[in-house]
Specification:
The chain contains 1 helix and 9 strands; from the N terminus they run ββββαβββββ. The protein is mainly β and about 140 residues long. The protein has 2 domains: about 60 residues, no CATH class; about 80 residues, OB fold (Dihydrolipoamide Acetyltransferase, E2P) (Beta Barrel), CATH 2.40.50. It starts with a strand and ends in an 8-residue tail after the last strand.
Length: about 140
Amino acid sequence: MAVDIGDPVPGWVDVLQLPRQPSLWPPVGRSGFFEVLQHRGHEVRLFPLDAGMRDRGSRAQRCTGPEWADLTRRWPVGARIDARVEYIFPGNRECSVRFGDWREVVEYEGRPPDSGTQVKLMVERQSEWTRSLILRPCDMPGQGI
């Protein structure tokens, strides 16, 4: 779904974040608040913060409130994490990493990492809305793996 963010760079919401029935998708002209999931020079990937604009099974439901509180205590902003690359998503230039019993998605630059590669990451921020940890490599501030 395209989103006018008032910028020449287009904003969009992945169809997997939207309600499963297209008849429930936000109508043209509806405004709302979004979290930026990815910002590249040619596009801005968005997550709708209004629960009425997204599917009930979206990322915000991936853990309970107490589980999220425990996770953010274990891995506060600035924490260093040893993780293992599990899956590569070349279309988005992202990879899924696992650390402990948790998974996150991390952007990479250049050549994709190999599945099974150990990486050192830092918690850059915590997203309450998506209940996700925003991670970056320890040795490359602001860059992907």
